[in-house]
Amino acid sequence: MIFGRVKPLDAILATAEKKGLQRSLGAFQLTMLGIGAVIGTGIFVLTSEAAQKAGPGMMLSFIVAGFVCAVAALCYSELASMVPVAGSAYTYTYAVMGELLAWMVGWALILEYAVGASAVAVGWSGYVVGQFQNQLGITLPAALVNGPYAGGVINLPAVLVSLLVTWLLVVGTTESARFNAVLVCIKVAALTLFIALAVPVAQKEHFEPFMPTGFTGVMGAAASIFFAYVGFDAVSTAAEETKNPQRNVPIGLIGSLLFCTVFYLLVSVGAIGSPLGAQPVRDAAGTLLDPGTTELAARCKAIVAGGALEPLSCSREALAHVLRTIGWVKVGNLIGLAATLALPSVVLMMMFGQTRVFFTMARDGLLPEKLASVHPKYHTPHVVTIVTGIAATLAAAFLPVGKLADYSNSGTLFAFAMVGVSVLVLRRTDPGRRRPFRTPLVGIVAPLAIAGCVYLYVSLPWAAILVLPVWGAIGLLIYFGYSRKRSYVGRGIIDTLDDPHMQPEVARPLH
């Protein structure tokens, strides 16, 4: 039976018990963890993308995306507390719904992590180019800092940061918790400064018309800026280390998402109310132009060449551009510097997450065991890291940030929807299982999470919608052509999870 291969939950839990994590995190620590994980790429990079899709209505888009994330997070937390091991939604699905769907989720997570890393790299590139131009007076050649979508040849800064992060992951240089905390402070301080300077001078007239692209545009923007909330699963996966998880996990999740949503709304108020406004760019005939297209890039160039301010939708460093426009040139440059410093760590963590999902799948026999090879000197999964790095680099070199974020979101939304389904299935098939955290009102919350993810998915651009089934079809060919007959669960080898967090640095080789 296709759906019959379920990895025994008891075996996974027995593995997790070996670690015996101490319950030390309270509601405040969880909330801070969530804020640090969520705030970053999306708000720095995708504000211009949201403006082009929804205009001032992007404020509603942030609320919609935050709500869908919240209900998905509550489902995520129940499974994370029951199955507190690595592998994210892939592991949860394997334990509940079987190998085939777990493979599809793991395959979709490649879109979330690897393509997401590419999106962050492209966003970082925009801020770096702005730093060279505004701080040093150096204008980098357009052909080398833009992909073909913007009339260039290759996005060289995005390529360089992707290759640098790949090298760091191979040699095992990962950021410490203290260094990450410093970067979180830089990000939050930069956005707080933006709010303090931009919101007080916002002008009401720039909010009209509020929804120039209608409800469809608002939901399309919500589907894109869903990327701005990804990272909340850091709270979910900390359920095993939380004191009183039934109380503190929802506080941490809802608290961090509510804080980030309010933060994002205030940032969008400052951006929309600035002299730039947030009205979408249209061609000479008044037709709305799609983000990440050569037509939009050409129209933006024509507007600037005519002596007008560069519209918000055209900017590759939106928040810094807003502050420079309202007279805070040096502070705008500092905002750009903050993004330049903070975003590479996001690239690193996304690539790190991707290599660990690949590594877990290889340890389950679903991918070639060579991918789970550990470097004899650096003790890192160097083969899978290099493969991931090359793929992420190629995508960053030639594709725009908005399209990459949309492709990433298609994989994320599928994985989150499957988590919602898994919660409902497990409540029915194994109601007596110990649940340190139980999703409240599961009969309402889980269907809302599933429906919300599906609705945002169909609100993505057509190209992003089609990426998932095409990518999934490739995955199915690999699964039935290679993985199914080599699966350890299928061959009756159960104990393949030697380390609860599947870290290659300490995991024993398979025999």
TrEMBL record:
Pfam families associated with the record: AA_permease_2
Transport in keyword set: yes
Main location: membrane
One GO location term (cellular component): membrane
Transmembrane segments: 27-46, 58-79, 100-129, 149-170, 182-202, 214-232, 253-273, 334-359, 380-401, 407-426, 438-457, 463-482
One annotated GO molecular function: amino acid transmembrane transporter activity
Keyword terms: Membrane, Transmembrane, Transmembrane helix, Transport
Cell compartment(s), UniProt: Membrane
Signal peptide range in chain numbering: none
Domain of life assignment: Bacteria
Topological category with respect to the lipid bilayer: Multi-pass membrane protein
Keyword ATP-binding set for record: no
The protein's name in its UniProt record: Amino acid/polyamine/organocation transporter, APC superfamily
Organism: Sphingomonas gellani
Higher taxonomy: Bacteria, Pseudomonadati, Pseudomonadota, Alphaproteobacteria, Sphingomonadales
